[in-house]
């Protein structure tokens, strides 16, 4: 929920009308064109279930055209002077800032996240990633001192999820372009609109045609894209299941691959922590963006002596969260991204109860009649073997467990097939570094949670994937060094 520095540039939004066209086409070779297959799908507002627009579903011929456009553009873009590439990325970053109110509203309407988050977290970070990577364009030789001549890889196939549509686009497109690659990106089928608006920004900023191509569609379009033989690199963010399939199909092809997959991240609270501060961190950790966060602190591990205090305070705090209309700037918890995801979450809640956990749903907010909603809640009395302690729920549901000793905290925290993130809450500095070094996680937050910055690398270990996005590390995946 927090951004380290103040990247908010646009004035606070009153409700802007993002002016959504009834029909959206594919963006290939610098033009908006219809799919050769003429198939379309609808994207809706999950808070109202109103259809926002009809989008083209890219088929094999469309994906082929997009990859060919990216290939042709690569010949020039890879040889474009670094300062010239930087100029385009800076222009894009500034244009994102200028249009950020409109983009924030569109993001919230298409995906269901609270406007306060789109406006104060997503959009500032999106701009920050373009600024940050723009700055690297002409410094790559200095960034990697051992490498005499870092070279771009080629055509990148990028597939992103629906939880941070524009931010995941920025994480992928900004470093790829900075290094001289060209891209074909597929947004998720429930949230395609901001990526297409980004394509407009590329046009406005006179980015050479074919450097960025956007193809919309569902899993089949994504599969066609990542399996295309003329792709040199795949960058995927999404479920572990799909990530494994992609890794299998890429094996032996020579394609470079980075995967950012699911998580079941532990948030560990020691008895010596500032409990009130920890409560805020727990809230940020799991109820930010309805829990649709790959690094969500979805397993809370609390030292036994403060367990009842934490549960009581958590209930109190949870009851104050405002659930409802994502476009209302006072809303804390918005709509669940899709009906399908809501069903998944409900199934997990059922299983949690059936396995013997106690459900806490202190937030009695009246929910809108239409739309997909789940009140923020948590399960106590969860055992490490329970399904709700092992699988990613990807919703506003926290599993609470306890531990006695630091050793037990570490072994419980690491008792998962995932390894994306972890949080540690304690006032003892010596304990912090000892524990952080033994947690199997790509990111460890200390006395904070869900804090992001374009200069910090992000990514997982174990089944949470491999490769890093952000900062200097994020460039590696887009260079031959
Ligand atoms: P998903 O992995 O199915 O979808 C992510 C993206 O991959 C989408 O753009 C989708 O169209 C595309 N895709 C689907 N099948 C593909 C294939 N075979 N080849 C290439 N691309 C393909 O995720 P989902 O179904 O939207 O969500 C399911 C679960 O995934 C969630 O419950 C959550 O656990 C997890 N998830 C994780 C993240 C994350 O940030 N790590 C994001 C979204 C979802
Ligand atoms: Mn939508």
Give a written overview of the molecule.
- The protein is an alpha/beta fold and 481 residues long.
- The chain folds into two domains: 2-261 and 461-480, Aldehyde Dehydrogenase, Chain A, domain 1; 266-446, 3-Layer(aba) Sandwich (Aldehyde Dehydrogenase, Chain A, domain 2).
- It is 39% helix and 17% strand.
- It has 16 helices and 22 strands.
- The strands form six sheets. It has a seven-stranded mixed beta sheet, with helices on both faces. A six-stranded mixed beta sheet has the order 10-9-8-11-12-21, sandwiched between helices.
- Helix 6 (165-178) links the parallel strand 8 and strand 9.
- Helix 4 (115-136) packs parallel to helix 6 and helix 10 packs across helix 11.
- The longest helix is centred in the N-terminal third of the chain and has 22 residues, at 115-136.
- The radius of gyration is 22 Å and the shape is globular.
- The two termini are 35 Å apart.
- The relative contact order is 0.14.
- The model is unreliable at 1-7 (pLDDT under 50).
- The structure holds nicotinamide-adenine-dinucleotide and manganese (II) ion.
């Amino acid at each position: 929920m927090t951004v380290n520095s103040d990247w908010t540039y646009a004035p606070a939004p009153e409700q802007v009308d993002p002016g959504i066209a009834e029909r959206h086409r594919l963006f290939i070779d610098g033009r908006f064109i219809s799919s050769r297959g003429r198939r379309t799908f609808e994207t809706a507002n999950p808070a109202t279930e109103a259809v926002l627009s009809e989008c083209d579903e890219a088929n094999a011929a469309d994906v082929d055209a997009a990859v060919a456009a990216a290939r042709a553009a690569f010949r020039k873009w890879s040889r474009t002077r670094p300062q010239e590439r930087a100029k385009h990325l800076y222009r894009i970053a500034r244009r994102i800032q200028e249009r950020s109110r409109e983009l924030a509203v569109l993001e919230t309407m298409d995906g269901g996240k609270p406007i306060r988050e789109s406006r104060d977290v997503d959009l500032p970070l999106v701009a920050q990633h373009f600024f940050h990577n723009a700055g690297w364009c002409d410094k790559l030789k200095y960034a990697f001192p051992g490498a005499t001549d870092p070279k771009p890889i080629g055509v990148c196939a990028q597939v992103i999820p629906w939880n941070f549509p524009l931010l995941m686009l920025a994480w992928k497109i900004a470093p790829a372009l900075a290094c001289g690659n060209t891209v074909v990106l597929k947004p998720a089928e429930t949230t395609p609109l901001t990526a297409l608006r980004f394509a407009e920004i590329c046009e406005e900023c006179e980015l050479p045609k074919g450097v960025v191509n956007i193809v919309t569609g569902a899993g089949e379009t994504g599969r066609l894209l990542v399996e295309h033989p003329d792709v040199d690199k795949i960058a995927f963010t999404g479920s572990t299941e799909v990530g494994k399939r992609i890794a299998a199909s890429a094996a032996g092809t020579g394609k470079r691959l980075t995967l950012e997959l699911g998580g079941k991240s532990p948030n560990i609270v020691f008895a010596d922590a500032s409990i009130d501060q920890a409560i805020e961190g727990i809230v940020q950790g799991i109820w930010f963006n309805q829990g649709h966060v790959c690094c969500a602190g979805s397993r809370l591990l609390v030292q036994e002596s403060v367990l009842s205090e934490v549960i009581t305070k958590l209930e109190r705090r949870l009851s104050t969260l405002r659930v409802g209309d994502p476009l209302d700037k006072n809303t804390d918890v918005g709509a669940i991204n899709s009906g399908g995801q809501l069903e998944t979450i409900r199934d997990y809640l059922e299983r949690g109860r059936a396995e013997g956990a106690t459900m806490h749903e202190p937030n009695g907010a009246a929910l809108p009649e239409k739309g997909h909603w789940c009140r923020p809640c948590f399960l106590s009395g969860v055992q490490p073997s329970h399904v709700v302690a092992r699988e990613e729920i990807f919703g506003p549901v926290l599993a609470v467990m306890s531990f006695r000793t630091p050793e037990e905290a570490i072994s419980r925290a690491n008792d998962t097939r995932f390894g994306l993130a972890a949080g540690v809450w304690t006032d003892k500095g010596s304990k912090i570094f000892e524990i952080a070094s033994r947690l199997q996680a790509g990111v460890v937050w200390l006395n904070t949670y869900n804090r992001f910055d374009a200069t910090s690398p992000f990514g997982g270990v174990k089944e949470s994937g491999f490769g890093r996005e952000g900062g200097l590390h994020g460039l590696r995946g887009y260079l031959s060094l």
